[in-house]
Amino acid sequence: MPLSRNSYGFLGYLLVLVPLVCYSLASWFAAEVIVGSATEAAANRRAAAATTAEAKSSYARQWVLEKMTFGYFEGASLADADYEQAVAIANEAHSRTMRFGWCLVGLTIAFMAFASLTARRSGGYGGWRYVVRHATATSLILFVVGVTATAVSLIAYSNVPVLGRVIFKYESKGIAEAISRLFNSGNVVLGGLIMLFSIVIPLIKAALLLMASTTSRNWHDAAIRGIQHFGKWSMADVFVVAVLLAIFAVGSDATTDAHAGPGLFFFAGYCLLSMAAAAALGKSSQRPPVPAFLEWRLWQTADGDRRQEAAVVAVDGDVVRVITRQGRRGRIELVSLSDADRVYVEEWQKVATEPVFEADD
Full-prediction pTM beyond 0.70? Predict the structure, then answer.
């Protein structure tokens, strides 16, 4: 149901205020998730370093020495305190990351629900462009979290007699960190491909969606053509998620644990939101068909600077509603038209109000 004229004032404030609040909160939540993820990874790395075979052998010697000196040498106690502190920091960082992560997810869902409801109530394709614009902008926030936060953590361990559980290797990487390490290790081709599929292509895709939802006429049509030509690469980011999920699925066995980090989930959320934005763009590009019986006219402003071919579809007070041959609908202020166009509008109104036939009864 389209909104009434009196509703547009309040809705206009909401359309500006809600995105400002949501983007501010989303940026805060995203920063907390990224920092929390990095803190948790550093603390887990510190705790894992204390449970390697070398560290445990050193701890055993320190424990014996501490017992023999009746606590004068506190090497083992200090090692225990350091390990417990690392575990506590990791647990708290994990809890904080989960808390702000869920806040970001809930805020994203609520914001997209508001944008979709606005598009349906507005009753025009402009509302769906609003959805595309903000869904793309929100997906970029999820994209930043997905690329920078920890995506996958791998722990290789074994149960050794006397020493107990010994960790041989602990790795915790995000997409950006993995690309950086590939480049630093000389794997330029592999690092370049992953950067292309996970960073470059999503950014180009987001730029085209923003261009299509914020510009008009030539730039809008060019962006639509770019998205259509770019469609064969549109699933590249989804492929990256599939590869990461495959690593997560096959990375757990008797001596290895694999854990999915927040980066993986938020990158998957970016993929879903980006696909939703592309679907909304399809709706925003579907304009109502142009009626067959219209009287086309070359309209001119009072100062003669602008001309536009269009046909009248309605007159609402001092506003003339027109449509172009391409299906674009717009409004023209009656006072800005030339004298000849004003006369034409008056005659059009008279013809529109005259009955087509006279009733017999």
Answer: yes
